[in-house]
Structures are given as structure tokens and as C-alpha cells.
Amino acid sequence: MEGEAMEHGREAGNDGVWLFGYGSLIWRVDFPYRARLKAAVRGFSRRFWQGSHDHRGTPAAPGRVVTLTPEAGALCVGMAYRIDAATFAPLDHREKNGYVRVRLPIEIEGDDGVTTVVGGVTT
Predict the structure, then answer these.
(1) Percentage of residues in the chain with pLDDT exceeding 70?
(2) Residue 80 falls in which region: left (phi positive, over 0), alpha (psi -120 to 50) or beta
(3) What is the pLDDT of residues 102-117, one digit of tens each?
(4) Of all helices (H) and strands (E), which one includes residue 94?
(5) One of 4, 71, 95, 109 is an active-site residue; which one?
(6) In angstroms, what CA-CA distances link 120 with 12, 20, 45, 61?
(7) Residue 4 annotated among the catalytic residues of the structure
(8) Is 6 exposed, middle or buried (0-12, 13-18, 19+ CB in 10 A)?
(9) Number of domains in the chain
(10) pTM for the model
(11) Residue 87: which CATH number?
(12) Domain interval for residue 74
């Protein structure tokens, strides 16, 4: 995935960090968060392209899970979560097996319908 790789939670200070969810982080929200808002990232598409043997499939026949792939002009809509650095540890275990955390601009839609672009991360 294009973008600047980010060390595990290093930048999440007292204000936390925005995390972009585009797959299971939308429908399986089993982690603490400070805020949750509709969001999008530009230049990426959501695809069932990543092989996984721990969530679906086996080591010999990995199943497909959602990943983001670079695509010029694309817009991927999801959710943004404001989380604390400690939240990365359980998410790293849950989302293991082939993801990389990167820093990307995230477009967040507020309750008033106004969109703000913030720095954030996705996996």
C-alpha cells in the first residue's frame, strides 16, 4: 500500500489518532474509541484481494479478506475512529497476518455535513 509506514501507535499522544476502517472495522467494532464518524480516503479501492488463513481459509488455501489497493481517482468510504495508542495492540492481533499501517489523509464528515481532511492511519 502506498503511503508512509507508521510505527505501531508511536504518534498517538493524548489526543489520540484517527483510524480509517474500511472492512471489518466497520461491522465488528469491538474496540474502544473516542469518536466515530463517516469518512473516506481518496486514491484507494476496497477489494477482496488479500489472502488470509487465520480469518478465512487455510495455510494451503487462504481465503480472501478486504484490503485497500491504490487506484487513481478512486474513493473508498468507511468510518474514522478516534482511538488511543493502547487500542492498537488488540487491533494488531485481530488484524494480523499481512497488513501494514500507513499514514493517509482521511476525509471526515462531521455531524453538520462538513467534511474535514485530517491526518490518520489505516491498516
Answers:
(1) 64
(2) beta
(3) 888 999 987 776 666 6
(4) helix 88-94
(5) 95
(6) 10, 7, 17, 33
(7) no
(8) buried
(9) 1
(10) 0.75
(11) 3.10.490.10
(12) 4-122
